[in-house]
Amino acid sequence: MESKSNEDLGLYIAYGTIITMAVLPIYSGSLASIKGMKRPANASKAKKSDNPLDDSEDEDESVLESLTSGDAYMFPIIGSCVLFGMYLAFRYLDKAYINYILTIYFAFMGCAAVTKSLLMVARKVVPRAILKHVAKYKVTLSKRSKNISHISFTVIHGLLILASIGLTVYYSYTKNWIASNIFGLSFSVNAIQLLSLDSFKTGIILLSGLFFYDIFWVFYTPVMVSVATNFDAPIKLLWPRNIIDFVLQNNDQARFTMLGLGDIVIPGIFVALCLRFDRHMSWKRNPAGQFRSTRFPKPYFTANLIAYVFGLGLTMVVMHFFKAAQPALLYLSPACILSALGTAVVRGELSEFFGYTTEEPKKEEEEKEKKNKRAVEEIELDTKQEVEEAEEEGSIEIEEIELDEEEEEEEEEGEIRPQAKTTGSKKNNTSGKKRKNKK
């Protein structure tokens, strides 16, 4: 009886820890995604940070990779092909060989992800007193006096990279579950920060499609469970089912509770979209302060994050009572969609909710480009007409000047040699004189 109660206590701790670990990257990644939003024209530029770990010159660059409705429709199909392909690979090929290749791949990816995540933590944790004495170095790549890109770094960057490499080597040799969790959390934070849904319509399509995807592959086939258990890579969060016995007995063969990263990242990018919508609505009502500040009302984000915790908790409860694996998106997809829609209805913002899109700045840029193109075409047309009229009157003569390769390159860079201009003008003057003589 006592062992049964200890086992239940261990499971409750495992469920609570898994939920906490899932919420952390969603919260952190969502806040970090604010920096990738396009700054409105009426928003003032952020003040340059005195933190040497910040790269303030990249603040105005949008780094979010947008998913469109077309991508959302294809996601379950592509995901199914990849999942079934992995299932066949594990079934008919040597599992050890496949996991060896995956370990090498995730070692490189994980090292970069962990470095970036540690840098985010260092910005918040390292005291200002220490940062003031940290020198910042800058390496600039340029071509013909034009800056192509630059890399800013400090000694702290170097230490974090070394720590990431050390962790990668340790995980590759030991497959330690704690190291695996660090990689998993880092992948999740970076994915939520960099991936963006272009609208709530796209988000609803994506969550709805993966709702049926998860149900089919978990309930009707052994594919999902088989791949999850055989795939020895940091694509899931792990926690011992009984942490007390695990610590006391140091049991390497302990059973683990797991949650796939897909059940964090997919709902996570929807939660992040809710936060960016909160930022958009807040700025629309009160365009003051710094646009990329995280201090603003967050009704949609809060409601969606609570709904995510509720959906994941419900998944754990059903899994506990039925003693079987559950498709988490069966509960998470409706929870996230309904909470966002419900918040929009209650606040009377349903039209703004469905009208919001992150592609608005791109449309504006395209319109500006079209206007500029029209203006250039009009100028060229006017110039052409003037030249034709002048030629008809016999006042000027146009001659083509052939440029050598070096002159063509300079012309492309906006540096035309004065010599060419002078030669052209002389020829025109000479031809004019000849015409006068003829007359």
Explain this structure to me?
- It is found in: Endoplasmic reticulum membrane.
- One of its GO terms (molecular function) is aspartic endopeptidase activity, intramembrane cleaving.
- One of its GO terms (biological process) is signal peptide processing.
- Residues 358-439 are annotated as: Disordered.
- Its main location: endoplasmic reticulum.
- The protein is mainly alpha-helical and 439 residues long.
- It has two domains: 2-358, no CATH class; 364-438, no CATH class.
- The chain has 16 helices and six strands.
- It has helices at residues 2-33, 69-92, 95-125, 128-131, 155-174, 177-194, 200-219, 223-230, 243-249, 262-285, 299-322, 329-347, 350-355, 360-393, 405-412, 418-438; strands at 65-67, 136-143, 146-154, 195-197, 236-240, 256-260.
- Strands 1-4 form a two-stranded parallel ribbon. Strands 2-3 form a two-stranded antiparallel sheet.
- Helix 1 (2-33) packs parallel to helix 6, helix 1 runs antiparallel to helix 11 (299-322) and helix 3 (95-125) packs across helix 6.
- It starts with a helix and ends with a helix.
- The relative contact order is 0.12.
- Residues 56-62, 395-405 and 412-439 have low confidence and may be disordered.
